[in-house]
What we know:
alpha+beta, Nuclear Transport Factor 2, Chain: A, 8-stranded antiparallel beta sheet, 54% helix
Amino acid sequence: MSTMPLSEQEAVNSRLSAATSYRMIWRWHFYAGLFCLPFVTILALSGSVYLFKPQIDAFFDRPYSHMSLSAPARSLDDQVEAALAAVPHSRIKGLELRNDPSDAARVHVVDAQGQEQRVLVRQDTLEILKVDAEKWRLSTFMHDIHGSMLLGDAGAIVLELAGAWAIVMILTGLYLWWPRNSIGVAGVLYPRKGRPFLRDLHAVTGLYVSFFALFLLVSGLPWTKVWGEAFRWSRGITPQQQVKMDWTTGPNSAKAQRVAAFQSAPQALAEAASEHGAREGHEGHEGHSTMTQGPAPARIVGFDRVAAVALSARLADPVMLAPPSPKNANWLVRSESQNRPLRETLHVDPTSFDVVRREDFSGKPLIDKVVGVGVAAHEGHLFGVANQVLGLFTALSFLTLVVTSMLMWLRRRSKGALGAPPALAAPPRWAPALVLLILVIGVFLPTLGVSLILVLGFEAIARRSLPGVSQWLGLTPRAA
């Protein structure tokens, strides 16, 4: 029994339905690109630099590494004391452990304004070689641009919205790329020559980068302001997930973390200050005038002994040593490797200098492990230099999409119009399914869901009340 072929009318209806779907998806692809491409450019450029943070930091620190010493190195306690004296009213945040004893000490302190300063100290003479504001180091500066464009939480929300629209851009782009009635792979897997070259280069690049781009966009969500805060809340619902996250959600979250570090003055600091004040008071009774000077900066001791413990543990670089504080009675030896699965923290008793607790990746909740692996891959440090190269390829591919889309837009855009693909005269039959999809997206990506509702609402208002704007947007046919 043979199947009857479709009637001519059914074939026409099928083609019209496909054309309608294509045009609607194309319009949303255009909207997504128009909004997010400027921000994608910022993310791609800043991310390309931050990928190579270890190499960049090492390059700028060249003069302070492998130094020729004129005398034996002073103790780490002396080096930390010199660093604290170089930044008035500062508190110690940590000392970066160096594997090479000829490297200058890198002491991280928090000043009276709550800003982190990085003090480089010469080991033999205790000369202060450099005081760096951490936020102005190139890698940190690029990190902050990548996260918020230096505009605080408002900038972070805009970038989060741009990332959400970039997901729409990639998914709709894959739909538009899908081969229809084509023969061969020209224009599908590689660009054709001549006039189609620009369009093909855009489509083929989008194809090859789509998986990696989607991964970067999704793996970056835990850092975002709206989605990340919601994730932080949901993560803390169950008791086993009451574990401190090792990532922040927006600039204010990072600032709160720095302020907490400033407020957690080491216990040794307070104790030594008290002893010193008592001693000064006694000397004052003997006829000295030192009582009016107040307590001198306290000396924190124990860095050398903790460093020996840290070196024997062989943690992944960089390793930070932090003294006891009101929030933590023990010394902390913390690996701050960008490869999150390699991070470990040792809690060292301040009296015996024995390791009393060890925290590593295996002890984290499953969801934190998943996020940690994603963050490490996002930053380009999960599998070494190859991960950095792959991240750079993704960023350069994004820039290629930006350039080709701009050239195509300028080429096809008519004077006096935005250049968006014409809107449909009436919603397609599958419009209810689109509404449902918007609701699902709105739950998963709240910023995108809200912006979609705003765009659809603005289009409805423009169609009814703003004929000039409606025509410019391509919502109504232009007059002949």
